[in-house]
Amino acid sequence: MSRKKIAVVGAGHVGASAAMWLALKELGDVVLLDIVEGTPQGKSLDLMEAAPVESFDSRITGTNDYKDTAGSDLVIITAGIPRKPGMSRSDLINTNTGILKTVVEGIVKYSPDTTLLIVTNPLDVMVYAAWKYSGLPARKVMGLSGALDGARLRAFISMELGVSVEDVHAMVIGGHADEMVPLKRYSTVSGIPVTQLIPDDRLDAIMGRTKKAGGEIVALLKTGSAYYAPSAAVVEMAEAIIKDKKRVIPCAAYCDGQYGVKDIFIGVPAVLGASGVERIIEVELDQQERAAFTASVAAVSGLIKELKIGE
Ligand code: APR
Questions:
Q1: Which one is the CATH code of 146-307: 3.40.710.10, 3.40.50.720, 3.90.110.10, 3.40.190.10?
Q2: Could you identify the atom of ligand 1 that is nearest to the CA of residue 225?
Q3: Whole-model pTM above 0.90?
Q4: Over the chain, what is the mean pLDDT?
Q5: In the chain, which end has fewer C-beta atoms inside a 10 angstrom radius, N or C?
């Protein structure tokens, strides 16, 4: 069986870390691409020199040329710029949409049947743009949200209870922004609802911390945003697709009527397998959860309206 080929676009913090997890798990050979000359080549070589230590045989190469990504089974896109002082959210959207356009067009030219996993923020709207630019079926385009937000919530629950992270499951849906919707009713420890294990006020504080978890890291780092958990979480999604595991992982997936919304990518529980998003699972939402999800959808729709896709 030949190895899978995985391209990672953007060899910055998230991209390089994703390449590392992919190689450690031997999910395939990795091509790291960046616009900056030397960066992807240098980081790839550095990773190749770690291979003997960690005993992985994945080949990692760096490039600035989309030709080298030809025939990729899966592409993780992390290219973009962070929001800078004085930059409005619309400016960021338009800059990163421009970057996404170049990247997606470069990728699909050489890998017309690939699957795209988007990490660039603002997430849900970038996934929408990537889908439009790619011409790929919607099920083959998705974004990192619930896998990361849920991992953060799992970490906080495990810290609170002093129990293994392995036994903690947590579900976060909605947009990958402050309006995300952590679902405490669907978060469990070995099947026990967390609502039975953690008092309400503490649980609310944990849910609140989850919503702001990205910002908490930015405030600590001062010069960038999180990358270990984001890269690990996107590789979890990649693994589900590459190994056709049919894992149920909330992510920004295309909704066509599910949850009562249409023509939008937003965080919902999805079955991830070889075909990409194979199915969206609709969980029952109570009134409060539904209201929070609706508000999140409204926030993402508002941002999509600001998109200038050049139609
Ligand atoms: N083509 C290819 N690579 C590009 C392009 C482009 N047009 N424009 C920028 N890049 C590269 C940059 O050169 C840089 O190496 O994207 C990389 C981004 O890396 P970082 O600045 O380190 O950002 P990172 O922390 O990895 O975050 C990337 O993921 O979590 C999100 O909000 C985050 O949108 C951001 C993205």
A1: 3.90.110.10
A2: 25
A3: yes
A4: 96
A5: N
